[in-house]
Amino acid sequence: MRRLFQYPLCAFSRKIRFTLAEKKLDFELVYESPWDPSEELLEYNLFGTLPVLVDISGTAVFGSNAICEYLEEVYTDINLTGQEPVARAEARRIVDWFAFIFHQDVYRPIITEKILKRFTKSIDRTSDPASIRQANSKLTIHMEYLSWLIDRRNWLAGRDFSMADICAASFISVLDYLGAIPWTKFEGAKDWYAKIKSRPGFRNILKDNLPQIPPSQDYSNPDF
Asked: Residue 122: what pLDDT?
């Protein structure tokens, strides 16, 4: 059985969970704490970062982009990158947007305040309201752009569901779990995310419920 070392509220881990599910590949989740990696995880990845995939062959791959590329190259029955060069380039552009710009502008500040400062002893736990205000301001810009894209396309990168949707949904779903997205302001993005929530490959992610951090009220509801 494939094993995925992951933390439920890690967007990069969710990206691989969603990808594996969309490719209809069986896998077992191995819970890991990002701030206290297990010895087994460190055996596969000296840096202790998540996610790490151990395939049925025993091959271990870490780094979400590397894992996705590996899965696309090894399991080719279902293509999630795109059929044409332009579509693939657009999907990769959107993946980079979320993995770097959205991560820096929005995801990391909110995760730091709501999760890392709660569980990580090695960082300053002093609250930083200004950081949250700035992240929320930038969230509006990003969500308006996402809505603009989806108003003009079937899916984020174009005609077909792709890795762009998987990556974007993985980041947004963590923020939605934390109740950090005011959906009434972003109708286009909300319609897109409702379609994501209805996909069979996303259902197990919607079942996440950490006792220390319960999900927002409508987190698991496709008709939110």
From this structure: 65
One domain, residues 96 and 69: no
Domain assignment present for residue 222? The answer is no
Half-sphere exposure of 41 (CA within 13 A, CB side): 21
- Write out pLDDT tens, residues 12-32: 999 999 999 999 999 999 999
> Each residue of 50-75: pLDDT tens digit?
999 999 999 999 999 999 999 999 99
- Domain end call among 35, 55, 74: 74
For the chain, the farthest-separated pair of C-alpha atoms sits apart, in whole angstroms, at 49
Helical axes 187-197 vs 129-152, angle rounded to 10°: 80
Q: Are 80 and 88 in contact (CB under 8 A)?
A: no
Question: Cis before residue 51, ω within 30 degrees of 0?
Answer: yes
Tokens read off for 95: 């993946």
d(CA 213, CA 117): 13
The whole-angstrom separation of Cα 75 and Cα 64 is: 16
If one counts the domains in the chain, the total is 2
Give the residue numbers spanning the domain of 111: 85-199
3-state secondary structure of 68: helix
Per-residue model confidence as pLDDT tens digits over 78-133: 999 998 999 999 999 999 999 999 999 999 999 999 998 888 766 667 788 899 99
d(CA 32, CA 50): 8
